[in-house]
Amino acid sequence: MSDTVNLLNSLGFAKTPAETRVVVAMSGGVDSSVVAAQLKSEGYDVVGVTLQLYDHGAALARKGACCAGRDIHDARAVADRMGFPHYVLDYESRFRESVIDDFADQYLAGATPVPCVRCNQSVKFRDLLSTARELGADCLATGHYVRRVEGAHGPQLHRAADPARDQSYFLFATTPEQLAYVRFPLGGVATKAETRAMAAAHGLPVADKADSQDICFVPGGRYADVIEKLRPGAAEPGEIVDLEGRVLGTHPGVIHYTVGQRRGLGVGGGAPLHVVRLEPRARRVVVGPRAALGVSRLAVGEVNWLGDGPFERAPDGGWRVAVRVRSTRPPAPARVLPTGPASAEVVLAEPEEGVAPGQACVFYADGRVLGGGWIARRDAD
Ligand SMILES: Nc1ncnc2c1ncn2[C@@H]1O[C@H](COP(=O)(O)OP(=O)(O)OP(=O)(O)O)[C@@H](O)[C@H]1O
């Protein structure tokens, strides 16, 4: 370490940027390209890594998805322009095992999974993180919009400065050990426009590239097509029933439905009906009026706790937090009552709609992420 450096560098290390090796997870999109370019221009020892997550020649991939051939090319072009090494790693089998298989199995079990969380917690922050360590890196940086803040008890996870871009919901499962190693240089960036301006300032070829949308391996959001391909014949037809069990119609398989869904039921005529729950064993889709969607209590499992102090030692009445039960929902007041080291009952102050098994329930205290868990059951189940 140089004698003249006694302050922490921008990534929080007590050495010069040149002495700090950082692996940047490069999707080929504008965000992670800017992270890599910015860190390189600050003098860091940058190594770019792009993961090939699925066979982009196969029907699963869509044009413009994060790991299509074009994106690998784009990431490499950024590395060439900025002058740092870039590697493409074949993570297809890991992605298949940790993310795609779970996605298909959960839909078949009547749940509504969030594959981006599974990808972050396994492929990126377990597998890629250990590869980064093997490459001798001091940290792993991504283009996620979320803030990492040094707190009195270690690094904390906070919502991004730009609420419209915030990705904290998808990162709730990041463990304290992982959080110690990862960096999110874009978390404090005010807007995406600012990121694009940085890309243009570095002369990056991806400055105007469109944002990625949907789930990367699901073309055009047609997830049922993907599941049919992965598990041919597994989606079996069944009945659509009302809350009293009266048969209103038939359906081609529970994988086509998600809790809260109103469109595409093909039944009704009267008041609008929503999917209230899915019963995969009986192959039934249960529908009811909107009023039946409200959920006040839910059980969560696989809890990841990022708050100060042990999770199980909650104050009387539980942890008072705000929870998001879907990525699209605003935080709502709730109490989290631990029922084990990694499980809890969540009691919402007001009923929430669209609470689906398989989704994440993320705990917040103001802008700080205190962790979260996977929704296992609701009072409606
Ligand atoms: N195939 C990949 N290889 C390496 N890193 C990836 C890959 N896909 C995503 N990432 C990393 O995860 C971050 C978040 O992924 P996400 O799919 O949300 O990207 P995004 O918001 O579209 O950002 P970007 O503009 O960088 O693609 C990326 O910024 C990048 O650091």
From TrEMBL:
Its Enzyme Commission number(s) read 2.8.1.13
Q: Which residues form the active site?
A: C119 (nucleophile), C216 (cysteine persulfide intermediate)
Q: Which reaction does it catalyse?
A: S-sulfanyl-L-cysteinyl-[protein] + uridine(34) in tRNA + AH2 + ATP = 2-thiouridine(34) in tRNA + L-cysteinyl-[protein] + A + AMP + diphosphate + H(+)
- Quick one: which residues bind ATP? A25, M26, S27, G28, G29, V30, D31, S32, L51, G143
What Pfam family does this protein match (any one)?
tRNA_Me_trans_C
Q: Which UniProt keywords apply?
A: ATP-binding, Cytoplasm, Disulfide bond, Methyltransferase, Nucleotide-binding, RNA-binding, Transferase, tRNA processing, tRNA-binding
Q: Mainly resides where?
A: cytoplasm
Q: List the disulfide bonds.
A: C119-C216
**Stated role:** Catalyzes the 2-thiolation of uridine at the wobble position (U34) of tRNA, leading to the formation of s(2)U34.
The name under which this protein is listed is tRNA-specific 2-thiouridylase MnmA
What species is given as this protein's source? Rubrimonas cliftonensis
